[in-house]
Structures are given as structure tokens and as C-alpha cells.
Amino acid sequence: MVKICFVTTVPFGLEHFMLPIVKELHKTGKFDISFVCNRDDEFAKRLPEWIHYFPVKMKRGIDPGFLRIISQLKRIFKKNRFDIVAYSNENASLYASIAARLAHTPVRLYNQWGVRHRNMKKGLKRHFYKTIEKVICKCSTDTRPQSRLHQTLCIQERLITEQNSKVLGLGGTIGVDLQDFDIAQKAAWREEFRKKVSLPSSAFVFGFIGRLTKDKGICEILEAFDKLEDESPLVYLLLVGDLDVNNGFSEQDKKIIGSNDRIICTGRLPKEEVKFAYSAMDVYVHPSYREGFGLAIQEAGAMALPVITTRIPGASEVLVEGESCLLVPIQSPEQLYLAMADLLNDPEKTKSFGAAARQRVEREFERSKMVGRQVEDYLDLASRFNGRTSC
Predict the structure, then answer these.
(1) What is the chain's Cα-based Rg?
(2) Which domains does the chain have, with CATH numbers?
């Protein structure tokens, strides 16, 4: 049995992104599987009995107790003699990559879900986060960039090499479960959800799903929408997610959302209800400053929505510009407005882009295909050694 351990800061990443892959790994009968993340007793209860769970106190952001965390992880890795330690999430990857190297773990896999420093202005903050990325990559034996553009840029920055990195398919993680995102139910879900949140059936709805923060481009969406709603009485904006006033989202922006009857903000929805929100939209808007790959864009495409997103690695690679999406520069509310107006005023283009988006997701990002690629990759990593191998 190959002993493999997956590490993230909080349980969310393990439960939503890794568990579908891990279940398929378990079916092969070749892996003994462990999870490490911040303590969450409810999460532990939901885990299958065949997953070993090691809670380690970690939190988002730089933890002043990082030496304690690294030491604790090292003890866990050495005691259990893992063959593979895989990590994602910036903080967990820093701690786990160092600890796994100190523990002489043979395969140290960095699932590189985005590179934080890339869109920062030059200065101490950018240098700090780039240094963290260098340390993680240096301590890892293998990296899996989220997209081909991410891989190219990381090679150019000498963070990784072609030899120790690989992009699986076109990129991404687990893709979309098309049985769950059932396109045949879209019309019924659309009508039901619009009634629930008081959206007129005749409205043309632009939407966003995710954390409402500055780096997701929410300020640009609000500015573009403010101009657009003056031109059309039928245009609405649907925002699904938590307002994050601690991450560049101002109180003034919060007031704008709360005072505008044509901006519907639902807060965070349960995972099983997200597909209903997509169904209520006509266009999905995602002007993020940085992105690993963009699962939300894949989900929007699965519900046959045309997408407007930014010309950045990851987000710009999910769909095809001019066929199923429009691309705009980051932090450009004027260009975002023009793209939104383009689709608002061209129903045929909107319909064509949506159909093409669905076809693209079916072809490239269907969940069983995506998970299959991940499982094949872990089997390939495991084939490097027979039984116990030392570093």
C-alpha cells in the first residue's frame, strides 16, 4: 500500500476538492489515505472510516506559530512514513513542503492552485509572497500548476521546471458533475429561483458567485453595472456570496448593494443550491484579479451561460474567447461595461456563447474525466517506488 497524506489549512479544500479524487484512489486498493487540516470535529465525523485524520491547528494568513506547525507536521510525517505528501493552499503548502522535506518524504507534491504574488505591484509585499512561493517549489519534488499559462509563467520565473511540473488536461481540479448541473432542469430552476429572490421573469440578469472581495473584481462589477442600469430598465445584478469588508471591500460598496433594488445579494448559499442561482442568470461575470483556474466559470458554462472574465492565467483558459466568453483587462470597469453591454444588446450572441460554453465543459471539464486524470497521476507518482523508498 502506498501511504499518501493530503494537507490543507481548513477542511473545505479537502472535502470539496480532494474527497472526490480520494474516493477513487481508495477504490484502486493501492492507497492508505490520510488528511491533515485544522481541527473540525464535524468534518471528522463526515469522513469515511478508511481516511486517517490528523488535526493540526492552522489558520488562514501567515500564522506566527508557523514553527510549531512545521514541527508538528514533521512529527506526523516521520511517524507515519508517508510515501507521498500532497498539499494545496498557500499557507498549508509552505508548512507541509518544509516539514515533508525535513521528514524525507519521497514524493512531495505541490498542487499549485494559483500564484498570489503575480498580480501584486512591485514592492515588499510582492517580494514576500514570491519568496514563499520559491520556498514551496524548492521543497517540493513535483508541482501541478492549475493551467498551462500558470506553468509557463512559473517556468519563466524559475519557480519550477518542465521536468518537475505537469498540467493535467487543460487544467483545473475536479471539474463539474453534469448529473448535478442538469441542463434539462434549467428552465424550471430559473423560474423557481427568480421567484424566491424577487427577480422579474423578464429581467436580464448578470451574476457572480463567490466571495465578494476586491480581488474578485466586485468593485468593477458595481461600477460597470451602475452605468449599464441607466441604459436599460430590465437589467439586474445577482451577487451570491459573503460580503468581505476586511478584504478591500468598502463600507460604501456595501451601502450601494443594500440601497439598489436592482442588485440582489443573497449571501452564501448551500452548495446544493448554487446551480439554481446560475440558472437564474443570463450572463456570468467574473473579473477576478487572480485565479487558479476558475471552477465557478466551469459551473457557469455547465449551465450554458456566456462568461465575461479577465485576461489572466487560469480564468482566461477555461472557455474560448469570442466563442463562449469575452475577456477584459483586470481592474477595468469601462471595458467590463462594454463587454456586458455587448451581450445585453445581442441576444443571439448570448445564446450562442452559452451553448458553446456548455459543449466546452462537457468535452473538457466533466467530473469523471477530471477525476480520472488525477487518479492516473497519483498512480504514476506511486509507481516510482515499490514498497518503502527513502529520500
Answers:
(1) 22
(2) 2-175+368-382 (3.40.50.2000), 183-365 (3.40.50.2000)
